[in-house]
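step 4 of 6: structure.
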Amino acid sequence: AQSVTQLGSHVSVSEGALVLLRCNYSSSVPPYLFWYVQYPNQGLQLLLKYTSAATLVKGINGFEAEFKKSETSFHLTKPSAHMSDAAEYFCAVSGFGNEKLTFGTGTRLTIIP
Amino acid sequence: EAGVAQSPRYKIIEKRQSVAFWCNPISGHATLYWYQQILGQGPKLLIQFQNNGVVDDSQLPKDRFSAERLKGVDSTLKIQPAKLEDSAVYLCASSSEVGGWETQYFGPGTRLLVL
């Protein structure tokens, strides 16, 4: 069975500050890891994904995440927060073959002007 | 390229009534998923289709939920009869292939409120 844990259901950062959203995973097989963003009343949009190539993954809107096997982590970062980054962020895990995508409970990011 | 389309966007029904949701995936995408997202939680997979065949429906409450994907394109998810705990956003997603590494593209969702 696979699972992800997102630490912090709510995170607030000032505009221009570093964004750090935490995700730890549990998987019995080599994982594929994803970060999705959800804006109010919209579906989920892929930010980035790790599929066993480079451990540092760059995504859209200036976000990146680093796969750390020793720490079973896949934290999402952005050097400088923008007001438009306010949204809900979901970490998700799947595995080789047809392992279904399992989502975390989400982190709501608020940007303080 | 058009995204995943869903309708209706909002639905309010009373418990014990029935309701149906429609999804049109991205053109050419063979795999289609239905998720349930309860407020404050991440999406949970209900059913996965590959073309018009079911790949995984292990978390679908089959006593009240049903889904079909006739002709391997559009899909319909039905709830009959609805319960209060079915209030949620129902998301449809599609991907070009089956595989854990595949990116899933999500529609805007249907927000269901059961009174």
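step 5 of 6: annotate
 - Residues 95 and 101 of chain B are 10 Å apart (CA to CA).
 - The mean pLDDT of chain B is 94.
step 6 of 6: archive
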